[in-house]
Specification:
The structure is a homodimer.
Chain A lengths: L4 E7 L4 H13 L13 H10 L1 H8 L3 E6 L1 H4 L6 H21 L4 E3 L15 H11 L4 E3 L20 H10 L3 E3 L11 H19 L1 H7 L5 E3 L10 H10 L4 H4 L4 E3 L5 H11 L4 E2 L23 H5 L5 H15 L1 H4 L3 E2 L5 E2 L1
Parallel strand pairs in A: 1-2, 2-3, 4-5, 5-6, 6-7, 7-8
Antiparallel strand pairs in A: 9-10
Helix pairs in contact in A: 2-5, 6-7
């Protein structure tokens, strides 16, 4: 079997103890205790992984997965900064344990203690600890920390985010933009809210790409789920970019785009606009599209056959399925050694 | 020249007196005076229309346009209910005057006095007045009245909207969902916010279509700009709908979709998924895509050639360009007579 890396997988079937702790945070309020990760047995974690994640990887032909806490359950909007920190610790501890059990298959990526009104400077200790001490190779960033209510989060293009971007560049780990829960009653969480924020992140990063990548030339950012409608309604976007004197076509290659989309037309558009050098494969196991398509009898997220049918050369296909992911998550795959103070040495 | 109806045009080049009044609302506060529409001369209005709107229609080959106040300038979030009412009156008065000057070309559609926290019952007098007394044939509905801040607007599928839907059904005028300004610093107004809400309206109306159209079988709703990514990332949507026991494919035909999109692939997808009976042409003059595409030398919003190249039969093309719009905006085109109490009689 050829190697295939999925860059966007969440632990969507965690052990029940995680839900019990999370539910308890509502009752305990802003001063509750943290989560004792040692209370989880290896067996409980392995059982939970065996429910959906590992069988799905086997069934779909995925060799390795960048593995992070579930996006919808990050829920940065909920509770005080302490509540968020406790939950972030619990969630990242679980990922660390899971990946340690299956080191050849699951590669850890963390969430951060983003909390409404708390600036990025206060998230960095968690990022450094997970990367430098535990081998995490990436992080998920919620662009809408409060979940659509006040205080609204500055655009991901805003210099408010620069302390995070500086640290990401220093550590050479990518940030994967991914929204979580929303309080907006008109935004269905994974039917609307994710897509809206995928699009918003794509738009704002591209719109300010010249400044952002001048200030952080080695910053690695990943846009997810094809960027909402940003690539698909490309002429609407090109009209706006052209009018502002920006070059839509070239900025698309300043970031990586994951291919967690579920129809071949969208993949074709991504290949046409972005090119194979900036695309990374994902089917996002086990998430929104973990449903059997009655038309085909296959699961919607069984998308490797769609990539295989794109008409790419073997070298191009290898870029999307393996090579680009290895370069992006270089801490997992390169032969470089990393000093624990975060400075990369060749 | 064949007849072509554009169902989604805004007066984006209004006389300067409108801007002067609008700017003054900031200074005058919640108790300022209304706008005196009589202060606008016919010449000033005709001059304003001659700047962009009428030449664009001529250049693009559009015979008739459903003509409404500019979407971005509706700005329902701004000021008290009185401020919103004054601005709504001014905006609709301008549309009435403009359409009266060019009765064969411009057909009036109104905005409503939507104001944060004000229920739909309090918008209906404006709708009835414009439709019954002035011949307006549709209205634009802002699904995000407060512009992304508290109090957040209930989903357009929520029964909160039912008094409006009942009145729309009674009057037999369609509602065209279209967001306006947003306070969210991460949502560029016409690069992100419109698209996010196009998608949100599409998703929520489709998700609740069985209930909504059971309760209002003759309700006419229009989704704009292709519904964001709702039709384009269709397998993500199908996965969600399938899992919830809903039939994505059939609900798409319960509403109309305007074709204010700017690339042929998106149009093809709309034809494939929605079918020609539920699509209505628009290039949205003069809006976001009123920009020359350097690749083609044509304006992005010069989209009639794209429709002509879809490979449709003459009858299918006629549905999209003329027939469906006539049925949708039946008060403008049918030979029915309408009683001023809003009850349609054959």
């Amino acid at each position: 079997m050829h190697m295939v890396i999925d860059v966007h997988c969440h632990f969507t079937s965690p052990p029940a103890a995680m839900d019990t702790y999370r539910a308890g945070q509502i009752a305990r309020g802003p001063h509750g205790p943290g989560f004792n990760a040692a209370s989880l047995s290896d067996e409980a974690i392995a059982d939970a992984l065996g429910k959906r994640q590992l069988p799905a990887m086997d069934a779909k032909g995925i060799s390795q997965a960048i593995f992070s806490p579930a996006a919808y359950s990050m829920g940065h909007h909920f509770g005080s900064e302490t509540v968020v920190r406790n939950w972030t610790t619990a969630s990242n501890d679980l990922i660390q344990r899971a990946c340690a059990l299956f080191p050849g298959r699951l590669i850890p990526s963390c969430q951060l203690p983003q909390s409404p009104g708390v600036p990025p400077e206060r998230w960095l200790d968690e990022l450094e600890f997970r990367v430098n001490s535990q081998g995490f190779v990436g992080c998920n960033i919620n662009p809408d920390i409060s979940g659509g209510v006040a205080p609204l989060t500055p655009s991901v293009a805003d210099e408010w985010w620069y302390p995070l971007y500086a640290k990401l560049e220093e550590l050479q780990v990518p940030a994967h933009f991914h929204a979580s829960a929303t309080q907006n009653p008109a935004f269905h969480f994974n039917g609307v809210n994710y897509t809206a924020w995928d699009h918003a992140c794509a738009f704002d990063i591209m719109w300010a790409a010249d400044r952002i990548f001048r200030d952080f030339p080695r910053l690695k950012l990943v846009i997810t789920h094809g960027g909402g409608a940003f690539l698909l309604q490309y002429n609407r976007m090109r009209a706006l970019f052209d009018k502002a004197g920006k070059d839509y076509d070239s900025v698309l290659r300043r970031v990586h785009w994951d291919m967690a989309v579920y129809e071949q037309e969208t993949m074709q558009t991504m290949v046409k606009l972005v090119g194979v050098d900036s695309l990374v494969y994902s089917c996002e196991m086990c998430g929104t599209a973990d449903v059997v398509d009655k038309r085909t009898g296959r699961k919607f997220d069984d998308t490797l056959p769609l990539v295989r049918a794109l008409g790419l050369t073997a070298a191009e296909e290898s870029k999307i399925l393996v090579d680009n992911a290895k370069a992006l998550f270089s801490r997992a795959f390169s032969s470089e050694s990393f000093r624990t103070d975060g400075v990369t040495v060749a």
